[in-house]
Write a structure and sequence with these properties.
It comes from Rivihabitans pingtungensis. The protein is an alpha/beta fold. The chain has 16 helices and 10 strands. The strands form 2 sheets. A 5-stranded mixed sheet has the order 2-1-3-10-4, with helices on both faces. Strands 7-6-8-5-9 form a 5-stranded mixed sheet, sandwiched between helices.
Length: 327
């Protein structure tokens, strides 16, 4: 059963949405990353608050989401900061309007048991799978740079998460940097060499976030404000009572069903990330986040993953809807 205060907020948001011009229907691209807003998604809270029919479409990587958003098929999508940096560097007409998570232990580099990888230097010559131009790809390259390991001497292969899980089970790869549910598959017969929490401390933080096409944002600002309010309420609930998301809880069961992760893994991974309050979101989106995206873009250019970078990434970030939600 939903938390009473949260349920009351959803009802209030629904009533407010009834007075607004609803965007209907709306296709939203989501991924299998672990965060508290998946509970609101499972409960239909976004539909209730916005007064709109939402078609939730699951994607396996940020690159696939970006392609769908670029084509105009999807106006709103959940991606990571690395795909955002790549898309913004190409001038895609999008804006980040909400940070889903400051990524920690929910993304990690796992090495297979028996692969003879006990230290970073042992990755040389080994086959390491990662979805290209994803947050884990960026984190992998940043970790190799930190360790002084030449990335060109590591056999880095581009696989989607489901392909990584299958390749791992076949024994085709030695290591993988990925998120759930493929992360759980790898950890079952491997060990974590490093997670994004540590890579972030080395100066390469990564984020999950929501983007919106600028044309949709201009036409439907109230939809996005209500979307932000629901997400903020879900995060406030989690941050106030993390113990309510234990492995045997209804909240974790909902997240597990949406993402394909095991309940015990969901509980651990939730604790491994940071879910910013709306107040913190406003602070992040006003400038620091855009600066972090700029640094990510510079790194990707140095690695030959993007051809050019923008002079500023502020035009690709907006705190407008968070500030509206706070009011």
């Amino acid at each position: 059963m939903s938390h009473p205060a949260l349920k009351s907020l959803y009802v209030a948001l629904s009533l407010l949405a009834g007075t607004a011009s609803a965007a209907d229907p709306v296709t939203i691209a989501y991924q299998t990353g672990i965060d508290p807003s998946k509970v609101a998604q499972a409960d239909g809270a976004y539909e209730a608050a916005t007064g709109s029919k939402i078609n939730w479409r699951k994607f396996e990587s940020g690159a696939e989401v970006i392609a769908a958003v670029a084509s105009g098929d999807v106006p709103i999508g959940n991606i990571g900061s690395s795909p955002l940096a790549a898309a913004a560097s190409r001038g895609l007409p999008i804006q980040t309007f909400l940070v889903t998570a400051e990524i920690g232990d929910s993304e990690a580099l796992v090495v297979r048991n028996g692969s003879n990888i006990s230290a970073p230097k042992d990755l040389v010559g080994k086959k390491v799978a990662v979805p290209f131009v994803s947050t884990t790809h960026y984190s992998l390259l940043a970790a190799l740079k930190h360790w002084g390991v030449d990335a060109s001497k590591v056999n880095i292969v581009n696989l989607r998460p489901s392909e990584i899980a299958a390749a791992w089970q076949r024994g085709d790869i030695d290591a993988a940097y990925v998120w759930e549910p493929a992360l759980g598959t790898a950890k079952a017969s491997g060990k974590v060499l490093v997670s994004s929490a540590q890579v972030g401390k080395w100066g390469a933080p990564t984020y999950d976030l929501w983007i919106v096409r600028k044309d949709f944002a201009e036409k439907h600002p109230e939809f996005l404000t209500q979307f932000v309010k629901v997400t903020g309420a879900a995060y406030a609930k989690y941050n106030a009572d993390p113990k309510g998301y234990a492995a045997n809880s209804a909240n974790v069961d909902k997240i597990a069903r949406l993402t394909g992760a095991k309940p015990q893994d969901v509980a651990l991974l939730l604790a491994g990330n940071t879910y910013p309050s709306l107040k913190r979101q406003a602070e992040l989106l006003d400038k620091p986040f855009a600066e972090a995206v700029g640094k990510t873009a510079e790194f990707l250019r140095a690695q030959g993953k993007v051809e050019q970078v923008q002079s500023s990434y502020l035009p690709y970030v907006t705190s407008r809807f968070v500030n509206a939600a706070l009011k």
